[in-house]
Amino acid sequence: MLNKTARWSLACAFALALASALCIPAQAQTYPAKPITVIVPFAGGGPTDTVARLVASAMAKDLGVPVNVDNIGGAGGTLGSSRAAKAVPDGYTLLLNHMGHVTAPFLYSKLPYDPIADFAPIGRVADVPMTLVARKNMAARNFPELLAWLRSNGKKVNYSHAGLGAVSHLCGLLLMKATGVEMTAVAYKGTGPAMTDLLSGQIDLMCDQTTNTEAQIKAGNIKVYAVTTRTRLASMKDVPTLAESGLKNFELTAWHGLYAPKGTPAAVVDRLSHSLQKALQDPALVQRFAELDAQAAKASDATPQALAAWQKTERDRWGPIITAAGVHAE
Ligand code: MLT
């Protein structure tokens, strides 16, 4: 026989379990009830930040609450991602990261989170082409001349990227491998601040997304030598691809995904995914993406299932390439 205190404790435990079971759907029904934060694991003003702010502002219209961007740059995106992985899984802290999200484990032996197991994918966001750009006073008039200059200067060339695991870092690795030129890599918290040093001429070269380079190329503030996509970009028809410039099979397009920490209620993830799909059709976003050469994900790709499958495909594609490059961070 249970005494009065034990009966009371049991009743309380039962009531608590019932309340929390009933609470999850109720929470999903009332979600969102306060501002949402999207962590961008790179510095403000850069390419991931640009995509995130456009998506956040379009999603805010649908969700009816502010969607704020928090830039937590450093360690190639892994600092911000780690923060997002450990956030309360209630749908109020999300992560918008690019493909570096799934390639990080091949570069960092002590990653404090698992990019796949510790996150609930919400949907794919966008694909963004990359450009090989240089400081304005670079003498080379085209890619063959740039290559000749790289070959004669090697380690004297400063190549900027956003840390091990950044897509600008991956592009540099592929470039060094394809050309056989070892350059000096200079790491930043994002290619936003790296662009400042490229503009001032402190940095020689960078491979970065059009969401960061397009405006500077058009304004004539930096020089563009090639695009990393399989075919030329409609907006830069006279700029060759790296593949047609002699770097056979060179192809790299940065893709971005939206994630919630693992344990976020499925109904909340679904609500966010529908909001993302709507946001990607928002006229203001569509127009800005087009100006920046970014391609919004199709509605069928902006789903948890599609992103879950895609990130595994990409992990399997890039893992062996990064491992073969032999680059590591502790
Ligand atoms: C950024 O937002 O700074 C970039 O996406 C970094 C990168 O090159 O990966």
Characteristic key phrases:
330 residues; alpha/beta; D-Maltodextrin-Binding Protein, domain 2; 2 domains; 10-stranded mixed beta sheet; 10 strands; binds D-malate
Describe the 3D structure.
The protein has 330 residues and is an alpha/beta fold. The protein folds into 2 domains: 34-127 and 254-325, D-Maltodextrin-Binding Protein, domain 2, CATH 3.40.190.150; 129-227, Periplasmic binding protein-like II (D-Maltodextrin-Binding Protein, domain 2). Helices cover 43% and strands 19% of the residues. It has 11 helices and 10 strands. α6 links the parallel β5 (158-161) and β6 (184-187). α2 runs antiparallel to α10. Mean pLDDT is 92; it is low at 8-24. D-malate (MLT) is lined by residues 42-43, 46-49, 98, 100, 162, 166-168, 190-192.
CATH architecture grouping of the largest domain: 3-Layer(aba) Sandwich
Indicate how many domains the architecture comprises: 2
Task: Give the CATH level 1 class of the largest domain.
Answer: Alpha Beta
Instruction: Report the C-alpha radius of gyration, rounded.
Output: 22 Å
Count of helical stretches: 11
Low-confidence stretches: 8-24
Helix content: 40-55%
Structural class: alpha/beta
| CATH superfamily descriptor of the largest domain | Bordetella uptake gene, domain 1
CATH topology of the largest domain: D-Maltodextrin-Binding Protein, domain 2
What's the helix-strand series?
HEHEHEHEHEHEHEHEEHHEH
Tally of DSSP β-strands: 10
Mean residue pLDDT: 92
Describe the global form: globular
| Major beta sheet summary | 10 strands, mixed
β-strand amount: 15-25%
Distance between the termini: 58 Å
